[in-house]
Amino acid sequence: xxxxxxxxxxxxxxxxxxxxxxxxxxxxxxxxxxxxxxxxxxxxxxxxxxxxxxxxxxxxxxxxxxxxxxxxxxxxxxxxxxxxxxxxxxxxxxxxxxxxxxxxxxxxxxxxxxxxxxxxxxxxxxxxxxxxxxxxxxxxxxxxxxxxxxxxxxxxxxxxxxxxxxxxxxxxxxxxxxxxxxxxxxxxxxxxxxxxxxxxxxxxxxxxxxxxxxxxxxxxxxxxxxxxxxxxxxxxxxxxxxxxxxxxxxxxxx
Length: 254
Hints:
Layout: H1 4-11, E1 17-18, H2 21-34, E2 38-42, E3 49-51, E4 53-56, E5 63-66, E6 82-89, E7 92-106, E8 109-114, E9 120-122, E10 130-131, E11 140-145, E12 151-159, E13 162-167, E14 180-188, E15 191-202, E16 206-208, E17 211-220, H3 225-244
Antiparallel strand pairs: 1-9, 2-3, 2-6, 4-5, 5-8, 6-7, 7-8, 7-9, 10-12, 11-12, 11-14, 12-13, 13-17, 14-15, 15-17, 16-17
């Protein structure tokens, strides 16, 4: 995953929202049981803080977290302050939006009682599955850059969040990590798809035969949910085929 802001932008979207009270309760308890540090971002704050979810209130089900590190303002002044909390459950990014209710003493140490969040957000594992294109299927990719020539490449593998693309070196302006792409055009199951993208990684320049080649990691931006689901279904099918074939070979992720 990229930087924290990218993680937050992806995580706190409607497609990963869980609103059922049972799902909220279960996820909060999983965060407690993980005993991992979490990241806390207070509204309008530039600095991020770390904490740990200590418990879930037995009556209201509200989360209780350790005092923030580094320390924020005095706990009493945080009452009513909105915040974002991001952690992991079994390696999967998980988070929620809440607000500070009060500063309390928990097992002799300072802690914050938060309001019970109305929903939690959790990335789906299947969104990270990746698979190579089917042999014989069109795997050509066109990268439309802003203010530079179009680049043609080949899809190395694809998943619900992005793809790896093998390209030759640009003939005008070099690519860079973070570059926004006007469109990433490719075909899947005979249907042409085009979506905005962003360069998130760049491999070292190598060679394919006599031609120089580089592998780019491209993240999809604003991918329609129907298209994302189509890609995920493709990766699930290819992974099942791989498991049934002793000679299968699936590529790694971005």
